[in-house]
Protein 1
Amino acid sequence: MATSATRTRTRRAGRRSPLASAALLLIGLLATGGAYAALTAGASADAASESQVTKLADEGEKLFAANCASCHGLQAQGTEDAPSLIGVGAAAVDFQVGTGRMPMAASGPQAEQKPVQFTEEQIAALASWVASLGPGPSIPDESYLAGDGDLAVGAELFRINCAMCHNVAGAGGALTEGKFAPSLMGVSAKHIYEAMITGPQNMPVFNDANITPEDKSAIISYLKYIEANSSPGGLDLGNLGPVSEGLFVWIFALGGIVAITVWLTAKSN
């Protein structure tokens, strides 16, 4: 009898309250519903983002067909007049179109900067469509364009990799066969970065294995620093180096000496 009563009390003590069971069921349903909602929301956001990218690329394809296909081909495969754009990436399109170099106004040794022909939205659409054709450099992250890189490192890297064409002060310089390295003063940080990773015209490509994104940021910081600060030596004569300085001395300094000599000779007579 005692043993049976003990077992009965034990079973009763081990039984779960109906309220506790309902609470556990409710918690389980809430947890399951929350997880499902989160997954559904994430999938919906991804689908919406993918749809937006697709829509942007479709708009870019239409713009390309109307403005670029006559040279580059309907599928950007290239023609006798222009190279293929498959695999050049969004950065190349953003640079070339965003600086007005493309579409070209006329054939020449190289595409020159001119007023931009498209809006920012249209440029983004063109870049999105070309990027969809094959993998290539993407538009740089804003964190590398802030101009807060190491100035000393940027100056050294610029002198080693860029100054032989663009001049140590970024003023630009002449190349062969009518080509030239343009001045980097007034060029946006984004376009400088894109030029480094795409290599427009005669410029070599500096991928992340050659110059890291942090070092590219340092180079941009150096260029923006010298752009914002005047020459400590006084009149910079366009920062064109010994040619302009020698010409200045030859015309004005020696010319002044000759003029004074002629004046003294005439006065003595």
Protein 2
Amino acid sequence: MYTRMVVAVDGSETSGKALDEAIKLAREMSSIILLLHVCEEMPIMWEPDGMNMILMQNSLKAVSDAGKELLEKHRRQLAAQGITVETKLVETYGGRIGSVIAEEAQKWNADLLVVGTHGRKGIAHLLMGSVAEGVTRSASMPVLLVRR
């Protein structure tokens, strides 16, 4: 029985499908859900001439604010269905989103981690990477991958 589930959400159709599956399980098992959103931030940007870096504070705030809005939207959705829900926003640098998701789930003592996956293969997978793959490699608890 899964009583503590973490669901990684990013606003995509795929993460929406993962959330739908987690909701079904939560209803059946009276589980608590932690909605987790990880913001991957790029604190600098190169100027066109390539010689100077520009801090992107306004962009960082916009990314964080959008994540907070997404979490609040989903929190209200789950609460309206009678599901106990918590939210957490994590900001990270350096493209380790999958391992950050797994680490946060472990800190929260999750017994299931639910993540959407696009199922990319070949060049698309090579170029874009896979958060879901990073999660499965790093997680210490069972992972439910939900395909689009």
Protein 3
Amino acid sequence: MAHINLLPWREAALKAQQKEYFSILAAVGLTVLALVLIINFYFQARIDGQNSKNQYLKNEIVQLDIKIDEIKTLNDKKASLQKRIEVVEQLQRSRNVGTQVLDEIAKIIPNGIYITEMEKKGNTLHLIGKSESNNHLANMIRAVELSDFFIDATPESITADDGSPKLLSSFIMKVKIKGLMDDAKTSKGGK
């Protein structure tokens, strides 16, 4: 019995162990590879989901930027229309100014005052005339201040006419019209 060779059995057992080792190693390798692929797919799916959310947000931001631009143009149009409406309203208010001025002048001028020249520039009325006395002129200034149509009566000059037979004094007066914008302001605003 001393001559029994156990080597083939040991070689077969060693080969079986090696085969089992390599199959376990291959199984572990395949499991690790599958695990890495699953983790990779998981994180890639999350990255793709986040990228799609980011792209959606970018598209929405572009849409909102377009709407903001539309709102800005609408606000510009609104401001332009508002200016036009104000000009039309001003023109509507000043439509009958000439008639109203003459009517109001007839009401506020007392006896003894004679208007020789009247000129309207913007919302200012320049009156040039003659007065029999300074009291009549003071009464006219008071009537202007009480008027609903005129404000700010400012006499610029009062000079006595020595050469006239009735001793009339000449005067120049500025009177402003209420609620009427200056023509210079409307022409600047209209441009």
Protein 4
Amino acid sequence: MKNSIQPSDSLLFSTAVEDVQPLNYDGIEPYRHKPSPHPRPRPSENPPPAVTARLSETEVTTHDYLLYAQPGIQHRVLAELQRGHLPIALELDLHGLTADYAYATLQAFLADCRVRRLRCVRIIHGKGSRSADQQPVLKRKLNYWLRLHSDVLAFCSAPRHDGGTGALYVLLRNPNKRHQPS
């Protein structure tokens, strides 16, 4: 049985809307101005010499589980990153790429993240099962490259449901607190 509207409710509604005028609507959505897109910066061929002087690739040890945080990162924020509780804004899949192409793609991706003002991203590097000697080349390279990037505050291997040791969660510098290079 349908619920019928009580006459008192109908009268109340009619008196509430008696002075309402219908809108003229022709079915076309009004024009909305969209902001122009930001151009993506082109990745550099090689890292700048000043950046590579800070740390040698041989100084970075790559374990099965990766964990890195710059000094000053709160333990609570790092724990949330490790558990996957921070929302992932964007994802980059590098596995299967050569190291040179992966580096250029990573630089373009991080520049895009800066323009989009993103806070947390996931980078898939793979586990290296098809690499020579079954060693994860991109994982080792990412462990080095991300430590050198000024926008990267922390990174860790993702939980099993999100790629495990074949993916990284990367915490980027707060877009509202970007530091100015000196």
